[in-house]
Design brief:
This is Dabb family protein. The protein is of the alpha+beta class. It contains 3 helices and 4 strands; from the N terminus they run βαββααβ. The chain has one domain: Alpha-Beta Plaits. Strands 2-3-1-4 form a 4-stranded antiparallel β-sheet.
């Protein structure tokens, strides 16, 4: 199994009162990709990291094999969700992939 972890920070211009709703929208739409994107087994969205965290939120996904991450990245459903609910609001993307 392959794990793909992506973390983001909100852009500075995002108001504090917007953040909770934006996170909910990100979570709902990113999780909805399970069953739509081949190879994507699970999707968990971390909305409330503990204070020691360096990023505002994270997406933790699992795949059958490493090549499935590239399929996910280019899949039209993922691109639509990312372009609508994630990319307009975030910066400082960090990614870690690993196999177990």
């Amino acid at each position: 199994m392959v794990h793909h972890i992506v973390m983001w920070k909100f852009k500075e211009e995002i108001k504090e009162e917007q953040k909770a709703q934006l996170k909910q929208d990100m979570a709902k739409n990113l999780k909805s990709l399970v069953g739509k994107v081949p190879g994507l087994l699970t999707a968990e969205f971390v909305e409330e990291p503990i204070p020691s965290s360096t990023h505002d939120m994270a997406l933790v996904t699992t795949y059958e094999k490493a090549g499935d991450i590239a399929i996910y990245a280019k899949h039209p459903e993922h691109v639509k969700v990312a372009d609508t609910y994630v990319r307009p609001y975030v910066t400082e993307r960090a990614c870690l992939d690993y196999e177990d």
